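Protein modeling request. Please complete all fields; requests missing the sequence field cannot be processed.
Requester role: graduate student
Desired output: 3D structure, token encoding
Chains: 1
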Amino acid sequence: PIRWQTCRFDELDVPTLYAVLQLRAQVFVVEQACVFQDIDGLDPQAVHLMGWSDGGLQAYARCFPAGVTFAEASIGRVVTQPAARGGGWGHRLIAQAQQVVAERWGRQPVRIGAQAHLQHFYAAHGFVDTGRPYVEDGIDHLEMLWTPS
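Delivered output (149 residues):
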């Protein structure tokens, strides 16, 4: 079973923040061999979504209201534990993040900066490539937009 938790930055206790930063560094810095500034100053403006199971953090994403990272609401730093991959964690995480945005700020368009190789993953959740490719930290990205129907 998954226990979903959302917190504002000032609600994160030290062990939870440590688990979040450890997972983000494990995947975004070490696994992807990408030297970049993960602690980017945006964490205080995010709602942090965490999926817990088996006593540990298995999935994580940041959710933002419109006007912080894009004109639209946004989801970022989407990550799952490497050992949890292939079990649907990523799909449940995106669905939960979309729900968090709708609950916190109303049902509205959501823009993401997706790694290009994950285009089909996000498309399965209704995100559409907006035709604005870019390179960030040496990795090809796409801006993708989800629009409520």
